[in-house]
Each structure stands twice: as C-alpha cells, then as structure tokens.
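Sample entry copied in:
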Amino acid sequence: MRRVLGAALACLALACASAPKTLRPTTGLGPTQMPPGQSATQLLAEARASFARRPLPEAVRRAETLFLATAHGEPHDVEGLYGAIQARLWRLEHGAEAAERDALVGSAVEAGQLCLTRAPERAECHYGLALALGVQARERHATAIAGLQEMVVHLRRAAELEPRFDHGGPARVLGLVLLRAPGWPLGPGDAEQGLEEARKAVALAPEYPPNLLVLSEALLANGAAAESRDWAERAVELARAQEARGEPDASGWVREGEQLLAKAQRSLNSAATSRGPWGPST
C-alpha cells in the first residue's frame, strides 16, 4: 500500500491535478450474491484465508468475490466491504489489465462510500475510503486535489475511532500523506507533522515493519539521516523475520527498507563530503 500512496502523492507533488471529478453514487458491490446455505462468518473466514494466499492472483480474485458476497448478504456488513477494497487495491498494484483499472478504482471508492453509509462510526470505513481515494488520485488526475483533502479528513477520523486499526494504519498512512503531499497552499504537506504521525504509528505497533519504514522516511525528510538509517535497518530485520514466517507482503517491505537504507547512506556520505577533513566546506 505504500507504493499505491507513493505514486498518488508523487502525482500531487507534480501538480498534475485539476478540478475534482464527481462520482456517481452506486452500490459499490458488483453482481456477486451470497451463496445459499453459507453464513457471513463462514464467507469472511474463507475470504481472509484466500486473501492471505497472495501473491496468487486467482486467490485474491476469489477473496474479492467472497468479500463482496458477504456484503451482499448482510445489509449492515462493513468487514466484507473493507476486504473488497483491500483486494481491489491489491489487484491494481499487481498486474491488473489496463481495461479493468478504471473499474477497479471506481468500485473501490464506491465500496468505501457504501461502507460509510452503512457504518459512519467504523474506523475501517474511513480508512478504506482514504486508501481508495489515494489510488484514485493516481489513476484519475482530476480527482487528486479534492481526494487528498478527503484522505486527510478520513484518516484523522479513523485515528480517533480506532488508532490501532491495521497496526496503527491511520497514523502511518497520514504520516505518508503529510510527508509526500505538496505543502500549503496546494496541499497539506508538512514534514514535521509527518514525523509526528510516524512516531505515533511506531508507538502503537513497534514490531510492524511498515511503521518503521514511514518513520525512517520521515526522519530522512527532517534531516536526521543517521537515525533514519537505524530505523530502516530495524525495519529490514523485522521484515526478513516475517518473510521467513510466511508473511505475504514482507518481501516488499524488505525492498523498501533497503531503498531507504541506501538513501540515508547517500545523505550521510554527502554530508561528510561537504564537511571535508577540516570541517564544513566554504
């Protein structure tokens, strides 16, 4: 998900957005119906087990179908809707065909909107919609500015409702938005606030590698390259341990950590060169 947000926010930083595009209200569900004789609890368990088999594309598609079936069968369901958002965003980042990308983006946002309609006080609805809006900002440039502002609102609300959701996800993702978005007056970007949110995420879930990766990035953005390198090293260490235990996303965390390590080291090398053997160059 860091890659999703990174690409979307890079678009914003380049000012590739214009006026917001209004979304048509839809169900966000698609045609899937709940199979007869199966409970929502059974379907959710099957969906989560199938999604855990990523990166197998067929497993993620099956998970999406089961999540949507749960949402169809339970008029107050939000867990199925949030799971469908996760599956759709994963598909977008892992080989979705060009012909289906726009539909996946739209359906992810619509599922988030429906989730909020069903349960406006559930953290996963605000969080899931924020993630979907981040991808929409990348895929549909006309939505970027309005989408960024909405992301911040929904992430802050998710943090109020359930700060520990997705291992401190609201603070983690908000930290990324603040770090990578353009600053005032175009956007809410603020490196110092991004660092503050990253520290919150690590305090909530200190063993979750993505939190440490965001903190490393935030420290680097605030000129603390040595500390950034230390946190990136810790993130890579944790990610490799989780990869050995079968975590499906851990290999990506390792790559991101290694990239941050390289950036931090380049920053340290550059600082050392500018100082020279007798202190700062003039």
